[in-house]
Amino acid sequence: MWFLYAFLFAVITSVSVIVAKRVMKNVDEYLYLAISNLFAVPFLFLIVVYFYEIPRVDGTFFRAIILGSIVGIFAAVFAYRAIKISEISAISPISAFNPVFTAVISFIFLHEVISGKSVFGILLICFGAYLLELSKAENDLLGPIKSLTTNPGVRLSLAAYFLWAITPVFEKTAILHTFPKVPPFVSLVGLSFTTVAFILMAIKKSKKSLPEIRNLLPIFLIVGVLGGLGQALAMVAFSLGELGLTTAVFKLSMIFTVVLGWILLKEQNVKDRLLGSFVMLLGVALLVV
Predict the structure, then answer these.
(1) What's the CA gap between 262 and 175, in Å, rounded?
(2) Does 139 have pLDDT greater than 90?
């Protein structure tokens, strides 16, 4: 069952990114995250109350939630800023670097050995990233690399996925310290923490007036429902499956997002980005499975 939950999370993630791209023509990333999360929290609460129960927790649970939330806040701001300023078909495949960062962090700090298969997976991901802008290689072999490294959205996405490579450790720890284990409860508490932070950021940084925002509330409601459901599915998938396998299925969202960006947003260069995404997905599979 974990595969179904992880697959549905990948689909919801792709749809949510498309909606976010449309909405953020009118609002900044702080306001988007604040309002969409504000709608997601009640929906997630209903899921926990209706299908599960409020579990007992311990001190380790709260430490994991707080640390994971702090890291997640920075990651989300970077990621949604990237969505606002760049084509989503260009930045979505960058999520493939998430397990690369995890492997490198584990190697440096935990002295875990990187196998030959994992090295090949990392090389495939890097090669797939090159293919994302393959058309730029017609006159300059380094053109795709230059295009990626000079794209501010790509740089922000790399920073976001580096941080998101850390958060599953905190989430898994928090799940193990709920009694009984209620994965969506972990998401609910974490999302509540981050929502408060995003609201404070939006109050300080966002300039949209309440009447302007009111017109977008129906869309934010849809985003909130999708966000709450996605969070619940992700936590259940993490609790039922191995972290690496679950992460690999999550990355199917790269393919879905590129296709949806082409169909719904009329983004260009879809052939290169699909090819690069498929190669990067193979790399992820070798790295985490």
Answers:
(1) 37
(2) no
